[in-house]
Amino acid sequence: MDYTPLILLFVVFLGLMVFGLPISFAMGVATIATLMLMFSFDQALFVMAQKTIAGFDSFTLLALPFFILAGNIMSTGGIARRLINLAKIIGRPLPGSLAHTTILANMMFGSISGSAVASAAAVGGVMTPEMKKAGYDPSYGAAVNIASCTTGLLIPPSGTFIIYSLISGGTSVSALFVAGYVPGLLLGLAMMLVAGVMAMQRGYSGGAFPSLAEIGRTLSDAILPLGLVVVVMGGIVGGFVTATEASALAVLYALVLALGIYREMHWSDMGRVFIDTAVTTGVVMFLIGISSAMSWTMTFADMPYLITETLRLISDNPLMTLLFINIALLVIGTFMDLTPAILIFTPIFLPVVQEFGMDPVHFGVMMTLNLCVGICTPPVGSALFVGCSIAGVSIWSVLRPILPFYGAFIVILALVTLLPEVSLFLPRVLLGYGG
Fold first, then answer.
1. pLDDT of res. 3
2. Which of 10, 26, 149, 292 has its CA 20 to 30 A from that of 218?
3. How many CB atoms neighbour CB 37 within 10 A?
């Protein structure tokens, strides 16, 4: 087998990244260079254009801009504050109550917005001043916010799962959404356990139990934002709507809340919301198109076969293969953001795990959870940068208090990897998934 195209692809790609070229451009240049090695110049450009445009040609992918728009509307329309107030009520009696509030708020707002970075910014912006006022170490507060904002990438609706569905060849988005619930909740609970132990060591106490009247007021104020999950997931699980149709319902629901009921957002804000959505969507769609061409090039150059044969030489044991893949993804996640990592490495590793019968939904949840670690770690962790910026602390000061949370990630990752039913039980029960 001629390995020259694959060597050229990754040498050019990594070389351009080292010199600071944006990852999408590095992928595109590396792909064109590799195609020119295999085809004529004209054919290479034709294949590049064809495969890039084909990457956009998916009805499922239409859900992505709608969910991004819904998240932007909710970030502007006062919904984050109502969810944080509910989290305060739930977490108040626990040691380190404000840390638990941060984690619970990230779980709720992250699951609704579908963005870890948006969740870290929204929740951190509200909770950081309160933590400082209560005497919490700012680095500890930032670590809690940064680690827990990732839970929204697992608890649906999740844009990451939509991208994985596309690049994996049409894995059910509905099954992926439902499969993310248990791992996402387990991750959140693990974060709360770690935060609680650290809070007790630091002497951060809890507060008084809320009264029934206070619970009622707060819950009634947050019930409509939480209703978005019921509308989206209830429609999908009940078979009334597809994930794409549910994303449009999410936008409509968010608009009714922000403009009609709470009135904390005005029509004059819509221009900025649409621009932010268009910019984010454009970046992600361009990355998806380029990665589709790159994935096709890797497949044409027999990279999945090469990886499979290499792993077989190392070990025939499926558990050893999963260990190798998890370690590789953990390393990859430290220098590559989650979305491009999903786009590039799903076509490489998915055929390998399918060789020994691993379900694509199970692998998608495992891969997403694994790469969540990367957005909390230097040198390119987007959630790490945003969380530190919001808290006004340096990255180095956060590294020590965030280390125990990495341990929680690894424990839940091992559980998800070794026990497929953690991911697949709910899709089988609620959707009759038989993949």
1. 75
2. 149
3. 15
**Omega before residue 379 within 30° of 0, cis:** yes
Higher pLDDT, 200 or 117: 200
Residue type for 403, please? Answer: L
* Beta-carbon count within 10 A of 385 CB: 17
Write down the pLDDT at residue 237: 75
Exposed, middle or buried, 78 (CB in 10 Å: 0-12/13-18/19+)?
A: middle
Which distant-in-sequence residues (6+ apart) come within 8 Å of 317 by Cβ?
none
**CA–CA dist 377, 398 (Å, integer):** 10
137 closest CA partner among 199, 193, 81? 199
Which sequence spans correspond to the domains of the chain? 58-431
Residue 337, token pair as written in the block: 């953001």
Query: How many helices and strands (H and E) does the chain possess?
Result: 21, 0
Q: What is the three-class DSSP state of 433?
A: coil
The answer for residues whose C-beta is within 8 angstroms of residue 54's C-beta and 6 or more apart is 292
pTM of the model: 0.81
129-154 pLDDT, tens digit each: 888 888 889 999 999 999 998 988 89
In angstroms and rounded to an integer, the radius of gyration of the C-alpha atoms of the chain is 22
Query: What pLDDT, in 10s, does the model give residues 259-305?
Result: 888 888 888 888 988 998 888 888 878 878 888 888 788 878 877 77
**For tokens 């077989």, what's the residue?**
312
